[in-house]
Every structure is written in C-alpha cells, then in structure tokens.
Amino acid sequence: MQTGYPNWKRVLWILVGGLTLFIIGKSVVPELLLASQEKVAIVRVEGPILDSHGTVEELRTFAEDPTVRAIVMRIDSPGGGVAPSQEIYNAVRRVRKENNKTVVASMGTVAASGGYYIAVATDRILANPGTLTGSIGVIMQMANFQELLEKVGVKNIVVKTGKFKDIGSPFRPMQEEDRRLLQSVMDDVHRQFIDAVADGRSLDSAEVEQLADGRVFTGKQAKSILLVDDIGDLQDAIRLAGELGGIKGDPRIIETSKPFSFRDFLETKFLGEVRSFSLPNFRTPLMYMWIG
C-alpha cells in the first residue's frame, strides 16, 4: 500500500500540471497569434486641437510596430492652434514617407480648418455626406477692454522696448500699422495652409485659393471639388486602409486606450460644443479653426 502511494501522487500532479498548462495555453496562444496578426491602427483627433504631443506619440508608436500595416486618422475636430495642427500634419507625412505605411483619413461630424489640414497629409480622405469640412483659413481673435477700464478709472501702464512689443494688447486701441503687421503674419500662415492643401490634394494653388476663404463644405460638396476622395464612414476607411496596406480579409483593429483626463473632457465636451463663444485670449494665438 505504502509503495504505490507516491506513484498515484505523481500521476495526480502530472494531471494537475497538464490541466494547468492546457488552461494557460488556451488563453495565451490565441493572444500570441492575435499579437502577430496584421493590424489597422486608429488614431483619433477629437475636439479642439490645442496640443499635438499625444497624437504625435501615438503615430510614432504605431509607425514602429511591424504588425501595423495601416493607420486610420479619425478626425472629428473644428481645428485649433496652427502649430499643433502642423506638427500632427508633419507626423502623418513622416509615417507615410519614412515608415512606408498607409494612412487614411476618416472624417466624423466636423473635420474643418486644422482638422482638414491634418487630413490632407494622408493617402486618402473619406468623409460622410454631411461632414462639415474645409474652412481653409486662419483667424486671430482679440478683445479690447480700454473703454471699460476708463469707465472704472483704471489705467494700464506699459514699459516696452519697441513700438510693437504690446501689439494686440487688450488695453490700447489697435493702430493701422499694428493691423498691417498682423495681417502680413496671417497672410503668410494662410499661404502655408493653401500650399499644404495643394500639395496633399494634387491641385494647383490657384484652384485652392478660390476655396480658401474660410467657407465650409459638406462631405458631398467637398468630394465634388476634390477636397476629399470618397464618401464613406469609419468602417469604410478601415476596410480601405487594410486593402491599401496589403491585408487580406478583415483586419484586426487596435487603438491606444487613453486614461481619463478631466481637462480633455472639458476641452472636448464643453469647449467643442461652445466654440463660438470666445474667451479673451491674451496670447492672441493663430488658429486654424472653424468658429461655427
């Protein structure tokens, strides 16, 4: 009796070990197979574009992942700052040229101004029929409180090193030479937008200039004037990206899960809805933004 006991114990441990390996294998092996499967990544640009860091980092990560064959830029944004819009635009171009990966733009409710600027960096642009897009232009908004301050008896005292150092100040009237200087800056940034659209859409600059007066278009109108390639939703964009990326069948979809940010919540859910209400901004930023 005592001699056979260790053998049964050994058999029992073998059975338990085999069952454990089976359970682990059943859960891990499919994940390993999925991890090596070719994928389409989704990068979302949603709400006002106030910072580019997160989006640029996502693009870099997916660009370096050998299993990601294509990227869909899901754009639902009225635009935002000129610099962050340009940085995301340049990051998309790097993914295409340096990493040789397909990038397709999918437009949601709004993909205007800076949102459209980003879209023109992609290989193909798809919009919904009712997407609001275009708004090729630049805007700078400033408030002036001089008369209000005078009514309450407050004086603003400025010490500066040059006559333009306080240009755009809310505490003094804008002079004609101030306006001319700012307009020259605006014209230069506007030209950068026009050139980006002409290059990305293979259009003559003169053709783009006719459309670059800040007007918005529906997705259907934009297709007719070659600002977008086709009408389609996010699923259509994913399928197209997979095809252009050489993936056979339905591609696996991945995207970065972003941690909750109260600031992002306010910017997307609040500022995105009330963007027509402009708070005074003392930095007078240049904006590729549709104020609708």
Report the total helices: 10
Rounded mean pLDDT score: 86
User: What is the CATH topology descriptor of the domain at 38-136 and 213-289?
Assistant: 2-enoyl-CoA Hydratase, Chain A, domain 1
Shape: elongated
Largest sheet: 8 strands, mixed
Question: Which stretches of 5+ consecutive residues score pLDDT under 50?
Answer: 272-282
Number-wise, the strands total: 10
Strand content: 15-25%
Radius of gyration: 27 Å
The topology string of helices and strands comes to HEHEEHEHEEHHHEHEHEHE
CATH architecture of the domain at 38-136 and 213-289: Alpha-Beta Complex
What structural category do the secondary elements indicate? alpha/beta
Helical coverage, percent range: 40-55%
CATH class of the domain at 38-136 and 213-289: Alpha Beta
Distance between the termini: 88 Å
CATH superfamily of the domain at 38-136 and 213-289: 2-enoyl-CoA Hydratase, Chain A, domain 1
Describe the structure.
The protein is of the alpha/beta class and 292 residues long. The chain contains ten helices and ten strands. The strands form two sheets. Strands 1, 2, 4, 5, 6, 7, 8 and 9 form an eight-stranded mixed beta sheet that branches. The longest helix is centred in the first third of the chain and has 31 residues, at 5-35.
